[in-house]
Amino acid sequence: MEILGKHTVPRAASAVRDGRREVQRIAEVFTADTDVLYDLGVLTSEAVTNAYLHGTGGIDVTVSRTIRGIRVEVRDHGCEHDQADRRDNGRGLTAIRVLSTRWGMEMGPHETRLWFEVAL
C-alpha cells in the first residue's frame, strides 16, 4: 500500500467539504471515472461526518493506493463508543457498507479509525 496523501481537517463546519475535496483531488490522478469519484466523495463525507460527530480535535484523512484501488482512512481522537450504538445512528455506515468494496472500523479508548476501499 502506498500513501498518496495525509490531511488533517480542523473540527469545523467545513470539515466534511474539505475532507471530501482533498480525497477527490488525490483520486483524480488515478481515475477519471466520475462514478468512482462521486462514490469516494460520498464515502469520505460520511466517514468525516462520523468523526466530526463522535470525536474530538482534528480529523486525520489518509489516502492510499492499493492493488485493488483507493483506500481512505479517517481517524478521530474520540473516546471508545459502543459500536452497536454507533451503527444505529443515521445511515452513514450503511452507505459505507454499500458503496465500498471493503471497509472496517477500529475503536479504541483514544481514537477511532474508519477505513474503506473503492476499486478502480
UniProtKB/TrEMBL annotation:
Taxonomic lineage from the root: Bacteria, Bacillati, Actinomycetota, Actinomycetes, Streptosporangiales
One MF term in the entry's GO annotations: protein serine/threonine kinase activity
CDD domains: HATPase_RsbW-like
Entry keyword Kinase: yes
Keywords assigned by UniProt, alphabetized: Kinase, Serine/threonine-protein kinase, Transferase
Domain of life: Bacteria
Pfam families given in the database record: HATPase_c_2 (PF13581)
Stretches assigned to coiled coil: none
This protein's record includes keyword Transferase: yes
Protein name: Anti-sigma regulatory factor (Ser/Thr protein kinase)
Residue intervals of the Histidine kinase/HSP90-like ATPase domain: 12-115
